Amino acid sequence: MRNLMKKSVIFLGVFIFLFGCVIRNNVMAYTPVDLYDHVWRLINIKFVDQTNNAQDWSKWRHKYDNHIVTNDDAYVAINTMIASLNDPYTKFLDPKEFAEETSSIKGSLKGIGIQIAVKDGKLTVIAPIEDTPAEKAGLKADDEILEIDGKSTKGITVDKAADQIRGKEGTKVNLLIKRKNSEPKLYSITRAEIEIKSISQKIPENIKMPEDISYIRLSSFISRNAATEFRSILENSAGKKGFIIDLRSNPGGLLSNAIYISDMFLDGGIIVSTVDRDGYKETQRATKGYVTDKPVVVLINKGSASASEIFSGAMKDNRRAVIIGEQSFGKGLVQEINKLPYDAGINITIQKYLTPNGTDINKKGITPDITVKLTEENVKNKDDVQLKKAIEILQKMTNGQEIATY
Fold first, then answer.
1. Does residue 97 come out as left (phi exceeding 0), alpha (psi in the -120 to 50 range) or beta?
2. Complete DSSP assignment for 96-152
3. CB–CB of 230/214 below 8 Å?
4. Which of 67, 93, 201, 237 could be joined to 345 by an S-S link, Cβ 3.0–4.6 Å?
5. Residue positions annotated with a catalytic role
6. What are the residues facing 127 on neighbouring strands?
7. Which residues, 6+ apart, have CB-to-CB distance to 225 below 8 Å?
8. Beta pairing partners, 115
9. Letter string b/e over residues 306-338, b meaning 16 or more CB atoms within 10 A of that residue's CB
10. CA nearest 25: which of 339, 328, 343?
11. DSSP three-state, residue 171
12. Which residues, in sequence order, are bridge partners of residue 12?
């Protein structure tokens, strides 16, 4: 099970500060042309789609040799080449972006605290990070960003959007937001330093949590300490009869965290499988033994992505938990980060992953066992019907009642 994590850090997620998966050092004396060629070769041997989006990849290798003079020239050429792959997750990171990515894994970042992706051709909010300017301003999962500081986002890449939204702490960014069944609304949000908090046990407002139920809100899988903190909660919950794990609007993070935390609940069995460009399938299995065998309910929504989907998929397919909420985001791809010369980097989609039952959830998501939608009216009235349903179902499970969808 540990083979996939032996090389460094595997990271899964869709963020405004996009992180990587396996970080490698490739530092040597490179000219800007060499840098471009190095990226070409990495994609040629690593990109999950061997057809490279049904094109002759060799045509790109020397396309700009006579035009690249500076690093900036190389960056433009690299981005043009990568765009031809039509993969939103394979992306070049200039030195500034790569530095921000590295700092985010360490636990902090600057911006407004929002995860974004291009979904169906539209720049879309995956989820705001908990207790950040974006969340406090009222941004929600599935919001469409129409404009950034008055500029249209039509045709924009995630990288370009991220660059426009980033800025100095204390400055403002204006986002024109279109929410389903609502008129566009302008949000003016002040940038700040974002502390990435992974785990909280704070009970949401207006919810009466039974004393024998442990509520764990996991807002991301980013922090290197997330699995350790999670295990500590389980080990200190001896008096609890069951667990509610809230993954709503959790955009993902370190694959190792998803695997380790899944392993805490499973007594053997498959956690996740990955398939590379050659069709080679590698299966990650849980070890024998577990931290707890008590009943579990997992909450997901359309902002639950990537590592969240690995965990919820493992729990669902192994019949270890009841999944409640809404269809998840649907990111079933794995990226590797390669560090490049000049302190730049590149994310390359190297694998797709499958749930234990062999399901490819990319662009589909995890289907809940029990679907409960949270309406605008629910949010306005602070009526968390999803969490209330989770409590109801978990109490039935702890009382020995069989759940029909289980």
1. alpha
2. HHHHHHHHHHHTEEEES-EEEEEETTEEEEEEEPTTSHHHHHT--TT-EEEEETTEE
3. no
4. 93
5. 306, 317, 331
6. 115
7. 198
8. 127
9. bbbbbbbbbbbbbebbbbbbbbbbbbbbbbbbb
10. 339
11. coil
12. 253
Structure tokens, 210: 């039974």
With a CB cutoff of 8 Å and minimum separation 6, the contacts of 182 are none
The encoded tokens of residue 143 equal 């919001």
Per-residue pLDDT of the chain (406 residues; tens, 9 = 90+): 444 443 334 555 443 333 323 334 444 567 999 999 999 999 999 999 999 999 999 999 999 999 999 999 999 999 999 999 999 889 999 998 888 777 666 655 678 988 888 888 899 998 888 788 999 999 998 899 999 999 999 999 887 898 899 888 999 999 999 998 899 999 999 999 877 668 999 898 889 999 999 999 998 888 778 899 999 999 999 899 999 999 999 988 888 899 999 999 999 999 999 999 999 999 999 999 999 999 999 999 999 999 999 999 999 999 999 999 999 999 999 888 899 998 999 999 999 999 999 999 999 999 999 999 999 899 888 899 999 999 999 999 999 888 776 4
- Tell me, what amino acid is at 227? A
